[in-house]
Write a structure and sequence with these properties.
Blueprint (H helix, E strand, L loop, with lengths): L4 H31 L8 H14 L3 E6 L4 E7 L2 E11 L18 E4 L2 E4 L6 H17 L5 E9 L14 H7 L10 E8 L10 E3 L2 E2 L3 E10 L3 E2 L9 H11 L2 H5 L8 E10 L5 E2 L2 E10 L5 H18 L3 E10 L3 E2 L1 H14 L6 E3 L17 E7 L24 H22 L5
Parallel strand pairs: 3-6, 3-7, 7-18, 8-17
Antiparallel strand pairs: 1-2, 2-6, 4-5, 8-18, 9-16, 10-14, 10-15, 11-13, 12-14
Helix pairs in contact: 1-3, 1-9, 2-3, 3-9, 5-7, 8-9
Length: 433
């Protein structure tokens, strides 16, 4: 059965109509997830709701328990022959105490490395999950006109496995476990909401070509000294003092070891832990953080500089330091040909003609691992607050982070257009009309 130009126009009109019709339910799903957030690999309730929804709408197959924990993939086979496309949403929240004051604000807590912590959807993954649930329902309703196979990928632990990247993240685990071996996608499409704190630009789509973000190498530094009484520091080798000197000295790596004209580098330490009593100098301290850089080729050199600083300072003080690069997340690569081919699909979904923008840089996301399987487009959809909204929102991972839900309609239409148009363009070997 061929799809005529008129038939495609009718299909796209129906997709828009169905997206608008399901919008209120999608927002309700998102608010429910927001009120009940779950940390990486602990998304039991969320995954259960997702799987039940996929089964209820009639997915051909629903796979659960993926990525070593709570991952879900729904398989929807279209009524027409065509390629396989994968659409991803991440489900996990963050150990952040919410301070938005919203009616549906989170009061949840969960275990994070043996400690009970507050939990919040402070990055928008609740929105991603709700949007992909709506995508699934709309595509199922238009299944007869969908070309190929749609993989609806609900991923755990994008923010890393608890407690704080102990083990593979969700995307890398899906790839390592062979979740995309059968069927194997021909392309991945992934969106992320973007709260850029600029009001009045809701629904803008931003996309890059090629390498458009940074690599992230995660680091744990173990400093060993010699414990002792706090009143007799000369009898000890203080690992906290060594760690403090390391923390300060590491800032020289991006400041003095990098050509800032060609490589944007940051080195941030987010954890500094050691000791259990005020008057006891501990034997050991630990620092943990991340090295980020935009020139992938410089990774080994930057790591070597970090290690030299850590070991040199520790040894000079009579202690030792070991660096463990326990996770490396590659740069997000958007296939340039795929971006150009699917550009009209994004334009069709945007709320205005001038609201699809090419950018040089974007988020880091662990979907960068997916490009070892198939080409990808990763894009953002602005969810900044309305210009006349008196409220304010923090940036991602902040306690005051908010999502303007109006932008989610653009996200929904974008994913629908990409999923349907890719099958058409791949079959016809031409770009979307």
């Amino acid at each position: 059965m061929d799809q005529t130009t008129e038939g495609l126009a009718d299909l796209r009109a129906r997709l828009d109509s169905r997206a608008e019709a399901i919008f209120d339910r999608m927002v309700a799903w998102r608010r429910d997830f927001h009120a009940h957030p779950e940390l990486g690999n602990q998304e039991v309730r969320t995954a259960g709701i997702v799987a039940a929804h996929l089964e209820a709408i009639g997915c051909d197959e629903v796979r659960t328990g993926l990525a070593g924990s709570t991952g879900v993939i729904g398989i929807l086979r279209g009524g027409l022959p065509g390629p396989c496309v994968a659409l991803r949403a991440d489900m996990d929240a963050l150990p952040v105490k919410e301070e938005t004051g919203l009616d549906y604000a989170s009061t949840a807590t969960q275990d994070w490395g043996g400690e009970t912590v507050p939990v919040m959807h402070a990055c928008g993954h609740d929105a991603h999950t709700a949007v992909l649930m709506a995508v699934a329902e709309v595509l199922e309703a238009e299944r007869a006109q969908v070309r190929g196979t749609i993989l609806l990928v609900f991923q755990p632990a994008e923010e890393g496995a608890a407690p704080d990247w102990q083990g593979l993240s969700g995307a890398s685990r899906l790839v390592a476990d062979g979740a995309f071996d059968d069927p194997r996608p021909d392309a991945f499409f992934v969106f992320h909401v973007l709260q850029d704190e600029a009001k009045g630009d809701t629904g803008r789509i931003r996309v890059h070509e090629g390498d458009g973000t940074y690599a992230m190498n995660m680091l744990r530094i173990t400093v060993k000294g010699r414990g002792g009484h706090g009143a007799l520091p000369w009898k000890a080798v203080d690992p906290l003092l060594i760690g403090a000197q390391i923390l300060t000295a590491l800032q020289a790596v991006p400041a003095k070891n990098v050509d800032v004209n060609s490589n944007a580098v940051t080195l941030s330490i987010g954890i500094f832990r050691g000791g259990a009593k005020f008057n006891v100098i501990p034997t050991e301290a630990m620092l943990e953080g991340a090295l980020r850089f935009t020139d992938a080729a410089t990774g080994p050199y930057l790591e070597s500089r970090v290690e030299a600083i850590c070991k040199g300072i520790a040894e000079a003080a009579g202690g030792s330091a070991e660096c463990d690069w326990y996770a490396r997340v590659p740069i997000v690569h958007n296939d340039p040909d795929l971006v150009r081919r699917m550009w009209p699909s994004l334009q069709r979904a945007a709320p205005a003609e001038d609201m699809v923008t090419r950018v040089d840089n974007c988020f880091l996301d662990d979907v960068s691992f997916f490009t070892s399987v198939a080409p990808m487009i990763f894009f953002t959809v602005d969810v900044g607050l309305d210009a006349d909204d008196l409220a304010t929102s923090g940036f991602h991972h902040e306690p005051t982070f908010q999502v303007n839900e109006k932008g989610l309609l653009t996200a929904l239409k974008s994913m629908l257009n990409l999923a349907v148009d890719f099958g058409i363009s791949k079959t016809a070997n031409t770009g979307p009309e």
